[in-house]
Amino acid sequence: MSEKILIKNARAIVTCDELDQVFYGADLLIDGPRIEKIGRGLPEQGAHVIDGTGKFVYPGLVNTHHHFFQTFVRNMMTIDYPNMSVPEWLDKIYPIFARIDGDVIYYSSLTAMADLLKHGCTCAFDHQYCYTRSTGKTPADRQFEAAEQLGIRYHMGRGTNTLPRELGSTIPEEMLETTDEFLKDCERIIEAYHDPAPFSMRQVVIAPCQPMNSYKETFVESVKLARDKGVHLHTHLGEGENEIMVERYGKRTLDWCREIGFVGPDVWIAHGWELQPEEYKVMGSTGTGVSHCPAPAVLGGFPILDMRAMQREGMLISLGCDGSATNDSSNLLDSLRMAYLMQAFHSKARGGSLSSYDLLKIATVNGAKTLGRTDLGSLEPGKGADLFMVGTEKLELAGAVHDPANLLARGGVTGPVDLTMVNGRVVFADGRLTGVDEERLAREGEAACTRVLRGQFKEYWTAN
């Protein structure tokens, strides 16, 4: 029999359902991986009781764009990202990425996943395109191993770069793959890991890194394979590459993608700050989503998405951290706060802003829709038991708790949450990840970073 859990007497349960219901002084009953009931005075029925007194309960956040491997390439002032274009930055950072091995993939993934879980993220997509001579084809396997250890719901984006530098890419030879070997490994990991069933803990996405760094055939064949296997597609688009794409193909990136079928409700892109208003219509009409990553946009000084205009055209917008090399954080609550403030900055010029609650739904309901997860994203009977709790009986929150739906981004609640649950299992509580030795993993991760990368940072920047 599955274990039942009863969250008892929560101060508020913010459901993010279609009616935007908030339950006050209520209970939430969980049976195995699913939510069974929400209401007042629910009988314990032999369930394990979690005291919700003074706690706000929210749906787990869904991260739709990240690069976990970059967690060990952060806090590097030697790469002045704010003063570079994206192609220039890629040209500087890729030689360092080329040094990464399987241990760095594993421990950097653990690091990013831990940060996400501690800040209320329960389901995460990672765009893993770092395949080097040292990693071989192991990154997907190492990442699924890390995700299972921590208990996070994980969507693995199998990325690649196939175009050599001499043909105009920014990719070192050590990180190049052929289209055939990429597709072969996609088939392998889909067979080994992809689970399309309700409450699945692991899925696979076919995600060639970016059009300007791959052959056209890589994207064409990715579309064919994804549609054959019934998995989603993802790539970077609209982040400074359009000038290159126009020079190379005579058309903007979205037109190029539409021509080959790399659009649709099973496709979403990362960033999109270069998209034009007429392209919003294409995105909306085809059902193609966009993952908004606020931190790299601010750090790079790039345009702030006009999210209201995008929504008017029917675009599906979700939220992502992006890689730590352009964020230095895997805290999606922090990204939520940043996204809210960025929209507020343009509110007068754009005829209004999105509310804090609007952004919360983008980070929960929309994130689940983006990943094709109808079983996640809100707290309601039948949905997956993914949630986090925030304690309100703290002096710093006095006077702000009358509106739980809008509290997080507007109130700047960006620190570690009180509890995170994934699939009906508590994975973080009382400041600790459950079931793992954090200190040991941190020591091992530091050792891997030092062994593989830290010496190389100094060597590379001395030579360049």
From TrEMBL:
Stored SUPFAM superfamilies: Composite domain of metallo-dependent hydrolases (SSF51338), Metallo-dependent hydrolases (SSF51556)
Keyword presence, Heme: no
GO molecular function: hydrolase activity, acting on carbon-nitrogen (but not peptide) bonds
Keywords carried by this UniProt record: Hydrolase
Record flagged with keyword Nucleus: no
Domain Amidohydrolase-related per the UniProt entry, residue ranges: 56-427
The protein's name in its UniProt record: Hydroxyatrazine ethylaminohydrolase
Source species: Enterocloster lavalensis
